[in-house]
Amino acid sequence: MRPHRGGIVLTLGIVSLIGWILLPCLGVLAPVGLVGLFTLAISAWILGTRDLRAIRAGGADASGRQILESGRLCGILATCACLLLGAYALGSTPLTVQGGSSSSNEEGQRRTKIHHARSGDQQGKPVTEFEYDEVQLPNGDWVRHGPAIRWSRAGQKLEEGGYVDGEREGPWTFWNDDGRIDPARTGYYHEGARVGDDPPADPLRSDPDR
Fold first, then answer.
1. Helix, strand or coil for residue 99?
2. Which pLDDT tens digit goes with each residue over 15-59?
3. CA 148 → CA 53, 131, 136, 186, 206, distances in Å?
4. How many whole angstroms from its chain centre is CA 89?
5. In this predicted model, what pLDDT tens digit does every residue of 121-156 receive, in sequence order?
6. What CA–CA distance (Å, rounded) separates 19 from 37?
7. Backbone angles phi, psi at 130, to 5 degrees
8. Could you tell me the CA-to-CA distances from 39 to 25, 71, 86 in Å, in that order?
9. Could you give the C-alpha distances from 50 to 16, 38, 44, 74, 92, in angstroms and in order?
10. CB–CB of 13/41 below 8 Å?
């Protein structure tokens, strides 16, 4: 008859439960801590179950039955908590990869739509977040070139303007979430930088000697 592992099982079960108190303190390392707690909890569950079966079969020391049952219970509770938290995290975290599509009108040109991650209207159709024109460079890369519009998940227009060779160019309008124009960002852009509220002066027209 082999000795029971009640002390090990109880320790694993208690640590896996107490670890939940420290989990929020881990910050960005919380997912790693969750995996560690799950490992301890499932180990307590499995070891406790095996030893209890051995006791019932007469192959292990029966004096550890109560300790094994307590440690196994802690492991079961902690395992269920880990699974529930993991399922909640997966369900509430938006995808980083967004859906999209492109349609080509002419060779070297295309219209691209980017959809909000995990979104859809009442008919289940994807909700467009960004729509813009692109051109293909000689090296094969695609860059934004032409009109572009971005919408919120609710369909509110957030920005509208144009690109030239991948940089904002010309008039751009930006809206806040409440639908009002954002004056700090709205204006005229040149090579991706805001140059003011009015279009930049044409040097050919401003120079009287030309």
1. coil
2. 988 887 777 777 767 788 888 889 999 999 999 999 999 999 888
3. 67, 6, 16, 14, 30
4. 10
5. 555 577 888 899 999 988 888 899 999 999 988 888
6. 7
7. -140, 135
8. 19, 14, 13
9. 19, 18, 10, 15, 36
10. yes
Return the closest-CA partner of residue 60 out of 8, 5, 13. Answer: 5
The pTM of the whole model exceeds 0.70:
no
Question: Is 130 within 8 Å of 161 (Cβ atoms)?
Answer: no
> Both tokens of residue 120?
């859809």
Cα(172)–Cα(149) distance, integer angstroms: 10
Closest to 99 in 3D by CA, of 76, 126, 135: 126
For residue 11, pLDDT over 70 is answered with: yes
Quick one: which H or E segment has residue 70?
helix 65-92
Q: Do the beta carbons of residue 36 and residue 15 sit within 8 Å? A: no
